Give the backbone structure.
Amino acid sequence: MAGYSNVAWFYDSLSRAIFGNALVEAQVHLLPLIQSNSNILIVGGGTGWILEEIAKIHPSGLSITYVEVADKMMGLSRKRNVANNKVTYITQPIQDVTDLPTFDVILTPFLFDNFSPATFDKVFNQLHSLLKPGGTWINTDFQLTGKWWQYVLLKTMFGFFRLMAGIASNKLPDIETEFVIRGYTLVDAKSFFGEFISTTAYKK
Ligand SMILES: C[S@@+](CC[C@H](N)C(=O)[O-])C[C@H]1O[C@@H](n2cnc3c(N)ncnc32)[C@H](O)[C@@H]1O
């Protein structure tokens, strides 16, 4: 299935037209938590602009594993300027990727809102086992805080991406509970775009 490859050429322009710079600001906000020489896993990085933002903070010393299932998204990601960081690109669904090392930092930017509940559970457990004890998991995604327009926008986005990219979800997973039941500590959190976007850092 083509998935997000269908929308790769206009994904960033569309998201910026709707959310302005909020999606970028939310994902960049907690990047300073990444320490020098870290081993990082990014899952669902889209067009890869986040690689350039990370390279602005750490132009060298990072070892990044970049897993993105959509080949057109990956094509754009590979063209990014990663400075002197080492990036391993893997074009597969994360749930099919085996033999990964463990990581100091995991980034999941707008990943989990794509998944059915079963895939969500599988991927969350997989990433949990790949994060080193004491490691940091930075997750950015939409959240509902009771404002009517958030429901309308979310429903519209689910409908659009179901049609265009074949996503299987129609509701946001309760990710916070998953972190809490596994004993993670909340390190930092911030909301953007009228609280519709949340970025959190949890320590394992
Ligand atoms: C909503 S987009 C977000 C892209 C990017 N993080 C951003 O904010 O601009 C979700 C991305 O996750 C990728 N993706 C979805 N399921 C995936 C999976 N199982 N493994 C790896 N990547 C996946 C999609 O191809 C898509 O590029």
